Sequence to fold (619 residues):
Amino acid sequence: MDIEKPINTKALFLGPKSENYDFFRQMLLFLMDDHAEWRRYFHPNDAPIVSDGEKGQKDFLDTLQKTREALVDLAGQLQESSTPWFSPRYLGHMNTDTLMAANLGYMLTVLYNPNNCAYEGSPATTALEIQVGRQLATLMGYDPQRCWGHITSGGTVANYEAVWLARNLASIPFAIRACKPELVDGLSDWQLANRSTAQILDLMDRAKESGVFEEMREQTVRGKGMAGANLGAIIVPQSKHYSWTKAADIFGIGQDNLYSVPVRENYRMDINALKARIDSLITGKKPILAVVAVVGTTEEGAVDEVHEIVKLRERYAEEGVAFYLHIDAAYGGYARALFLDEENRFIPFEGFHTICIDSKDTGNDWLNRDVYEAFKAMPKADSITVDPHKLGYVPYAAGAFLAADRRMIDVISYFAAYVFDKSDDNPMLLGSYIIEGSKAGAAAAAVWMAHRVVPLNRSGYGAIIRASIEGAYRFYTSLQNATPIEVGGKRFEVLPLTCPDSNIVDYAFHEIGNPSLKEMNALNQYLYERCSYKSGPLYTNDFITSKTSLTVEEYGEAPLSFIKRFGFDPSEWERHGSVVVLRSCVLTPYLVNNTTYKTYWNTFLKAMEDAIADRQRSQ
Fold:
């Protein structure tokens, strides 16, 4: 594909009204015909198994009819109860229309049913997965020849792999001391616990050269287990995904060793609080296993200041304190395409006017320097999670895990004799290096197809994501400028939670003058129920959204400034410790047209007004 050719985002999706159905249908017929021919021409002289006479038998026809009836039944259930992600009326969870290329790639590949656990079961799609890993490495700024990357079932498993690697790596210096002490001669326990990732990998190379690599691996936690191991703490922001809590349990880290750092009013990790947490752990002589930054939080879309965390890590390294750095960019990772030119060069901040949000409706304040610098610093992390099934616009299930240095996988690799041929030294034996076993090759093919059609730079994915961010900013500024809704003699205002770092907008409605936070929470819970599956089949809803609760247990005092903007007394926060907000992930690229946007904005306002009126009548 000539990546210099412009991408028309409207030609990438089936469309809210199936506008590209004729093309999609043609491609479906092609892939079915192509697969059928592949079967026919595998040893074409073999006789057919099913004869024409058998096809006419009653039990044969009855069996086909059962399949037809089951399919019709399934189609009915899906149409009645499924969520219309494709419509700009849906502004809820991290879902939207998916790329035709990805859908077609998945549908074609699923007919071949490859299993990417081992190359033997998936010669075509394992190779595609390796390619995709390198493509995503390039997107994140990693060296594609040095890194390790592969497709997972989602961000949760990718985050698990980060903990798996960090945990096993941290135990290597101690394992080397147990089997080859001269390699770490003179290092104290504290010094062994504070080797950087690069230093640990170099130690591992020396163990290989000394012929004690396998013995060393058996002395790590993979061989000895976590009993007695003091590998340290994992530090996460309060905005963390719940997978980190589960990971601490699954990998034996323990909840007591999972430390949450407060977020600021913009819901980014508080860097000063992170430093204070690290300092307190150092004072207590507790090692730091890993620090996790989030690029695109699931509730607010916030982008942690990765560049400041990197600077902090570099300063601590000078003081003899090291830790693994992972970026959970499951949601926001693909947005890095906004910053890459067609040669995969990171665009200078001063030259960013060509891709900034810049219209009379939204202003151009999306790209602040911290967001830019955070994305620029991502290659400094040891590993990154990114989900193609989010901002990659690929169907489920397709997450991805990327590690900067492929040497890391040697601390987790396993071989099953009946699956892997070790003598082959094949780098594509994925099942040996990952948590999952059997895995659909169709997912890798879907991501490969998406990348084949849509370049991972500003002219490809950058164009789609730029449109979604512009839609989010239109929504955000419309919320800011909205006049109060008047219902039954009462006036209701709406305020956005914070200026979004990406394309997630949180907001809440409030009856002006009502001093009860409990009542505001009840109002927004009701609005959510009216605009979600709670109200019945989503197909009949005028507007669909999601919601979340920002609690003191998870967010500390960060939400306090938000409720103060409604005029609440701080005692209301102390009394209830939770605020319900509506949450709209604006992934659709269709809200950039002024006329189109105003149509859907008016739909939103009317849906909210009707819901408030219904609630007033029911009280």
User: Anything to note?
Assistant: The chain has a mean pLDDT of 91. The first strand starts at residue 90 and ends at 91. The longest helix spans residues 155-179.
